[in-house]
Amino acid sequence: MSSAATRTADQDHLWSVDDHLEDILTTVRPLEPIELQLLDAQGCVLVEDVTVPVSLPPFDNSSMDGYAVRVADVAGASEEYPAVLTVVGDVAAGQAEQPYVGPGQAARIMTGAPLPPGAEAVVPVEWTDGGLGEGPVSGMRAHSASPEGSFGQVHVHRPAEARAHVRATGSDVKAGDRALEAGTVLGPPQIGLLAAIGRGTVRVRPRPRVVVLSTGSELVQPDEQLGTGQIYDSNSFALCAAARDAGAIAYRVGAVADDAETLRSTIEDQLVRADLMVTTGGVSVGAYDVVKEALSSVADEDEAGSGIDFRKLAMQPGKPQGFGSIGPDHTPLLALPGNPVSSYVSFELFVRPAIRTLMGLKDVHRPTTRATLSTDKALTSPDGRRQFLRGTYADGAVTPVGGAGSHLVAALAHADALIVVPEDTTSVEPGAEVEVVLLG
User: Fold this and answer.
1) What is the pLDDT of residues 256-299, one digit of tens each?
2) CA distance 248 to 246
3) From CA 319, how far away is CA 297, in angstroms rounded?
């Protein structure tokens, strides 16, 4: 990363999108692994394979509410000529001891309960009279209301093959199998599997903590009254939501006025809870763009190797960008432009991949595809700039939404894709094939 002297010398250098992104991704490193409780690990990435210690299910069990029987005892059973069996007791889920099922006998069994010794299959209760002697039933009476149902006789109206309605030991996963592999993102099904095999904690890379800070004396919080020349702060909300969508734990800081000392102290205060910092606004060439001033003064007092490079990128929107590290822990910081579309496009291209790199993910980019441009007139693009236009994608076609202006936040809200126009292309005709970044 550049020193303060090099930053000054490089101010007129025009960076490509790819070079800026490469600089970010070669600087940002995955977070160190930690051991977390299961629910705290949701959204995190496994750093090691997880092996199954106990087979699932750990014992043969019933997949139905019904009766555990011997196959020979129900062979040829029908409603006209039912098999009449003696009920020797109940087998409930979690029950430690089960009755033995001998010839001519059956045990009333519940879903998930162990298959009792002697039994070879389960007949659903709907295939029986439920012990009532009145033809087929639709269910069992509650044990508390009819305890006598555990004994007596049951009429079975259909035969059953061996192992019918029995979940075999290890039919889900067997002991020694690999349950989950390193690199897996832990969602609800994966958390459930870990719990099912008895894992209470797991070793993961934690979700990165991202602090989002917007700048500008003109910014007012939503629900407050707007004064002359003021606008609502939308960037910090959009970028916070985007950081969470990328997998981070995001902290939003209220808008900071255009005062370098205030901004500097706010940034320093926020470093304690940041694995990555994102600022928006104040990176252009105006007299009140204080992010450069504030971050330069922070960098001047940092240890060697820290500092922020403020760059011009060959892209539209989002030409002004900043990247580097600050503070004693060399916390990565990305300084984005303040226009809403510029900041959001910059987030998708640069911040989201950085977040997912911190998480330890292999695939850090949004998916891309090729699509047919659906529009009434040609799209124009500045020579030497990679342009990212908002669009909607469906069935292999993409339609532009709104114009090229970096302030058009309403159009952005209706877009689910970015149309990419290369640096060497100044016009794209209707029906042309274009590259599309899918945002949803």
Assistant:
1) 887 888 888 899 999 999 999 999 987 765 555 667 777 765 55
2) 6
3) 23
